[in-house]
């Protein structure tokens, strides 16, 4: 049995190539709609830097090489973060309105982790797919690399990340498209334009899922 039950817990997977704008759009949705946002990449970088972590080295190598970190590590980090977020506050409220909706950003990047997460943690309600060209993504990543300090925002890592995206992550999107769970959004436009369309499509899908 999964730890969390859909549809009480709403899990929205957020996918797209590296630099497509996933983190940026999740930030907008948090501000606007009060959803919770967990980025697999951020959780992995945090774990990589945590003193005493047994996974530091393997995470570091995978990130620079643009490879998928073993799913056991990533799924556990996401599940822990969700459990922590849903613990009752001191006032006894489990979560405020909208806070039981999770944006799981940069996950699942590979088919095995998709199936394992849905089996062990929670069924997904929908998948947002931010779609743009490799040229746009590359340009954004190189610009971000001027200030991000990230070990993988450089030409060599970007090429490898694109390969992983094409070979491993695209099949995940195709899998969910067949289940009619994918909201495709052109993320080449401005942050505001992308956000407005994303928000509209999410609420339409939530209404559809609940039969309204
Ligand atoms: P991802 O999480 O998909 O890797 P980010 O949200 O970090 O991507 O965005 C990558 C870079 O592109 C960031 O520097 C961000 O500020 C910038 N960016 C994001 N969305 C847009 C947009 N719609 N137009 C222009 N730049 C954007
Ligand atoms: P991101 O911050 O989403 O750009 O991810 C940076 C890197 O973290 C990726 O290139 C992978 O090496 C790793 N990573 C992020 N998300 C996942 C995931 N779902 N599964 C495995 N590795 C991941």
UniProtKB/TrEMBL annotation:
Single GO molecular function: ATP binding
Matches recorded under Pfam families: ADK
Catalytic activity, reaction form: UMP + ATP = UDP + ADP
Keyword annotations from UniProtKB, A to Z: ATP-binding, Cytoplasm, Kinase, Nucleotide-binding, Nucleus, Pyrimidine biosynthesis, Transferase
GO biological process: 'de novo' pyrimidine nucleobase biosynthetic process; nucleoside monophosphate metabolic process; pyrimidine nucleotide biosynthetic process
Key word Glycoprotein present: no
Presence of keyword Nucleotide-binding: yes
Family in the record: Belongs to the adenylate kinase family.
NCBIfam families in alphabetical order: UMP_CMP_kin_fam
Listed HAMAP family: Adenylate_kinase_Adk
Protein name listed in UniProt: UMP-CMP kinase
Lineage: Eukaryota, Fungi, Dikarya, Basidiomycota, Agaricomycotina
């Amino acid at each position: 049995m999964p730890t969390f039950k859909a549809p009480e817990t709403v899990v929205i997977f957020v996918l797209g190539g590296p630099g497509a704008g996933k983190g940026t759009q999740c930030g907008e949705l948090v501000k606007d709609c009060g959803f919770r946002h967990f980025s697999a990449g951020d959780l992995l970088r945090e774990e990589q830097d945590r003193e005493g972590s047994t996974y530091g080295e393997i995470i570091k190598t995978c990130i620079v090489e643009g490879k998928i970190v073993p799913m056991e590590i990533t799924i556990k980090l996401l599940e822990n973060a969700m459990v922590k977020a849903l613990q009752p506050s001191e006032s006894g409220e489990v979560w405020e309105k909208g806070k039981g909706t999770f944006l799981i950003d940069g996950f699942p990047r590979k088919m095995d982790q998709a199936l394992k997460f849905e089996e062990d943690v929670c069924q997904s309600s929908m998948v947002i797919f931010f779609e743009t060209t490799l040229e746009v993504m590359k340009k954004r990543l190189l610009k971000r690399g001027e200030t991000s300090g990230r070990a993988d925002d450089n030409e060599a890592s970007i090429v490898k990340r694109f390969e992983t995206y094409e070979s491993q992550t695209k099949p995940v999107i195709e899998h969910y498209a067949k289940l009619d769970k994918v909201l495709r959004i052109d993320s080449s436009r401005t942050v505001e334009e992308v956000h407005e369309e994303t928000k509209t499509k999410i609420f339409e899908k939530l209404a559809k899922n609940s039969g309204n």
